[in-house]
C-alpha cells in the first residue's frame, strides 16, 4: 500500500480521511496546512498527497506550486468543499491547471476517494 500525506486544516475531516485510508491499509502522515506538509516533505517522502485547497498559512495552490518549484514530483488529490459548490469546483479547477490529476468535492464517499487515489497514481 501507499504512504499518503493528508493535508487538511479541519481536524475532524482529517481524522476521517486518515481512518478511511488506514482501514484500506495505507500508511498515513498528517499535516494541518501546507507549511507543515512542505516541512515533512523536505525530510521524508510520501507516495501521494491529499490536500485541501483552502487552508490558513499556506493553501493548496501555494503548496502545490512550491512542490513544483522544489522539483518534488508527487501525485496529488485535491479536495475542496464548503457551502457553495461553485467555489469548490473553482478551487479544483485551479488545481487541475497545476497538473493535479484528481479532485474531490467534499463530502465524498469512500468509493470516490479510492477512485481519486487510483487516478492520481496512474
Automatic annotation (TrEMBL):
Domain of life, per UniProt, equals Bacteria
Q: For the Response regulatory domain, which residue ranges apply?
A: 3-121
Task: Point out the coiled-coil segments of this chain.
Answer: none
Q: Which Pfam families match?
A: Response_reg
Q: Which InterPro entries does the UniProt record give?
A: Bact_response_regulator, CheY-like_superfamily, Sig_transdc_resp-reg_receiver
Q: Which of UniProt's keywords are assigned here?
A: Phosphoprotein
Name a biological process GO annotation.
Answer: phosphorelay signal transduction system
> What CDD domains has UniProt attached to this entry?
REC (cd00156)
Q: Which residues carry this modification: 4-aspartylphosphate?
A: 52
What the entry lists under PANTHER family is as follows: CHEY SUBFAMILY, STRESS RESPONSE REGULATOR PROTEIN 1
User: What is the name listed in the Swiss-Prot or TrEMBL entry for this protein?
Assistant: Response regulator
The species this protein belongs to is: Noviherbaspirillum pedocola
Amino acid at each position: 500500500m501507499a504512504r499518503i500525506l493528508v493535508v487538511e486544516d479541519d481536524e475532524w475531516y482529517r481524522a476521517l480521511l486518515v481512518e478511511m485510508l488506514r482501514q484500506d491499509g495505507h500508511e498515513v502522515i498528517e499535516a494541518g496546512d501546507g507549511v507543515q506538509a512542505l516541512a515533512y516533505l523536505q525530510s521524508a517522502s510520501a507516495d501521494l498527497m491529499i490536500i485541501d485547497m483552502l487552508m490558513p498559512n499556506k493553501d493548496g495552490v501555494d503548496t502545490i506550486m512550491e512542490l513544483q518549484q522544489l522539483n518534488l514530483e508527487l501525485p496529488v488529490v485535491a479536495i475542496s468543499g464548503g457551502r457553495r459548490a461553485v467555489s469548490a469546483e473553482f478551487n479544483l479547477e485551479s488545481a487541475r491547471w497545476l497538473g493535479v490529476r484528481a479532485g474531490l468535492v467534499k463530502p465524498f464517499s469512500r468509493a470516490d476517494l479510492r477512485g481519486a487515489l487510483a487516478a492520481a497514481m496512474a
